[in-house]
Predict the structure.
Amino acid sequence: MKKLAVCLHIYYKVQLREILKYLRNLGEVDYDLYVSMVEDDAFIVDAIRKNFPKVQFFVVENRGYDIGPFIEFLHRINIDDYEYILKLHTKGKKSQNWTRLNGCRINNALWGKILWDSVLGAKNRLTDGLQFLDEHKNVCMLGAKYCITNNKKNYENLLSEVNKVLLKLGKEQVTELSFVAGSIFLVRAFCLKPLLKYRIGDFAITDGWVKEGTLAHVMERVFGVLGQEIAPAKHGCFFFYFLWNACKRFCYQNKITSKGAKMIKICRIPVYVKK
């Protein structure tokens, strides 16, 4: 049995250099690397293959954000061949909106940085995570501590849909759950076998304007249920990132409100609103 399967979905191609930097921290772990894209790109293929000659690429429909391609990946491997699976994906950075997770406000750029740092932010990050799972058999999933959430506000509106998926998967219904918001995590492979009942075609075509409510968003919560007990991975210090972002947010905000209006705030005072 191979130790690890690494699944990387690349949508934001501009992040290639950053991705390669992180992937070098895979180190000497016994792994297979799989990379999915929504269209063939010879430059990306050549750049990754130059550093990782045994990488396997596949092109998928642009369905279900990073979740649909991950489901397709599970069908392309034999899950029983692996002990662990590392799920990775690019994350857009240009959104002006902020997300609150565990009391911290983060923008998309910082969110992605935290997620990647928790699994590949240093040369020993992955080996530490694998060793932790080897030693703690009760834990099935590792993710960034800032992104592991059990706050009902982050799932209660999708709970009925989560339970519909769990019913299809032959799992018990839940009234509460935890999950890794952002879906970058290290997980025991066998936990994901029930997901083979889904295919990428079950997911809607990706629409960047839809921020919630799709099967992909539901499945993100389902991952947490299947992952059973989730533990925080070791990662770097983000105190100064949070402080800097808080200062920037106080001074200037350019956001889309819950009602779809464009709003600009300076020192928290609305100075422009366009419906």
